[in-house]
Design goal:
The chain is of the alpha/beta class and 434 residues long. It has two domains: 171 residues, Aspartate Aminotransferase, domain 1; 231 residues, Type I PLP-dependent aspartate aminotransferase-like (Major domain) (Aspartate Aminotransferase, domain 2). It contains 13 helices and 14 strands. A hairpin with a 5-residue loop joins strand 4 and strand 5. 45% of the residues are buried.
Length: 434
């Protein structure tokens, strides 16, 4: 080609949650049985969509208006329903004009970062969900700026680190909070959120709150939505149905904007996001039309609570299994359906290995883990995959220098879940001793 087609560094923005699938599929072809513990798709892990929910969707399919465009902001009746739900909680109040629907939160995240000036930065947690970190880095064409989540303290944010980043980096205009958190499963206490809001208010920042797991909490925890604590600070909350219904294939999420009229710069930013959405006309109509009927269905609350009880049980099984493994930093996950485990600094190296019997599989894995710049935890994850078929994600792929892995809690069979984590426990010990 006569010209370069992509920005410098664009090829470095990878999505390891999906990349490892390509490797696992190659190993499957060699006869390796895979336990898919890498991606948060309840449907792929055997979650059954109840008949009543399918009937709601089927009724909407029979209505002609689900086949047409909807308003760019989203279906009006659905936005009215969401407004009522949000405003009943108290805190910051919204109108239907403060909601925009997107084709999944990946679409929303792209718009949120893509409409910022390249010189303007959003401070993200570390570790953080990959779509946020790559979106923020891509818009700025620079390495991420992040505050530390502390594995030694329940994965809570290091608020001194957060404040210092804001204080000494005037390019920072926003702070990202993922609550409940992906990849760690941490749930932000109210006092922590209030301190973050205070920092945002002091330095004139806005807050991005990814709350897609807002209603999936357990172990006695509760989620405090950002709207309950922000006061007059500009903020936006990202929500969706992909994990909660669950309906990940719907690609349906929305943003609620708070205090838009109280800051001219924030209002201009929100309008830019809306204008960029207008270029797509609208988001998919069908899931928006079905949303109120599903949320308000008499069986919905019990159905969700049953799922949450299952995640709570798996959370405690996983924690009890791994908490006493030497060299690991393990926290009980209290929200979403992930667990992030960190190895103590310096524990992993490039000499450790697990035995791989199939020579073709061994050659494939060796070619991947000996490439320049491969993180030690990626080496561990690929050896684990080839040795026993457990597919997890290296923690270093979540914008952190920590070495470890993220695993899901979505396996439905308790016996199989125990087997996976007992196997994982044994393989960690074997790997560290090698």
């Amino acid at each position: 080609m006569r010209n370069e087609l992509v920005n410098p560094g664009a090829g470095e923005l990878t999505y390891e949650i999906r990349n490892i699938v390509n490797v696992a599929e190659k190993l499957q072809a060699y006869g390796v049985k895979i336990n898919w513990e890498n991606i948060g798709d309840p449907i792929a892990k055997g979650e059954e969509v109840p008949l009543w929910m399918k009937e709601v969707v089927a009724r909407e399919v029979m209505n002609d208006d689900t086949y047409g465009y909807c308003h760019t902001r989203g279906v009006l009746e659905t936005r009215q329903y969401i407004c009522e739900m949000t405003n009943r909680r108290g805190g910051a109040q919204i109108t239907t004009d403060d909601i925009i629907f997107f084709n999944g939160l990946g679409d929303a995240i792209a718009k949120v970062y893509g409409n910022l000036k390249p010189e303007t930065r959003v401070l993200t947690p570390s570790p953080t969900y990959t779509t946020h970190s790559t979106g923020e880095m891509a818009h700025a064409n620079a390495a991420s700026v992040h505050y530390r989540l502390q594995p030694e303290n329940n994965w809570y944010p290091d608020l001194v680190d957060l404040r210092n980043h804001v204080k000494y980096n005037p390019a920072i205009a926003g702070i990202l909070v993922i609550n409940p958190d992906n990849p760690t499963g941490m749930v932000y206490p109210e006092r922590v959120l209030l301190e973050i809001v205070d920092i945002a208010r002091e330095f004139g920042l806005f807050i991005i709150a990814d709350e897609v797991y807002n209603n999936i909490v357990y172990n006695g925890q509760k989620t405090v939505p950002i709207s309950a604590v922000i006061g007059d600070v500009p903020a936006l909350a990202m929500r969706g149905i992909s994990k909660e219904f669950p309906w990940p294939g719907s690609r349906c999420g929305w943003i609620e904007f708070y205090n838009t009229g109280k800051n001219a710069r924030f209002k201009k930013y929100v309008n830019a996001i809306l204008n960029s959405k207008m270029n797509e006309v609208c988001s998919t109509t069908l899931p928006q039309k079905a949303l109120p009927a599903i949320f308000s269905h008499p069986e919905y609350r019990g159905y969700l609570e049953e799922r949450i009880r299952r995640y709570e049980k798996m959370s405690n099984i996983a924690y009890d299994c791994l908490k006493d493994v030497p060299g690991l930093q393990v926290n009980r996950t209290n929200g979403a359906f992930y667990m992030a485990v960190a190895f103590q600094d310096g524990l992993l190296n490039h000499r450790q290995a697990l035995p791989i019997e199939n020579p073709e599989v061994k050659n494939l894995v060796d070619s991947l883990v000996t490439a320049p710049g491969v993180a030690p935890d990626k080496r561990f994850v690929y050896h684990l995959l080839a040795n026993c078929g457990i597919c997890v994600v290296p923690l270093s792929s979540f914008s952190t220098t920590l070495q470890g892995f993220r695993v899901t809690l979505l396996e439905r069979s308790e016996d199989e879940f125990r087997r996976i984590f007992e196997t994982l426990k044994g393989k960690i010990d074997e790997y560290l001793r090698s």
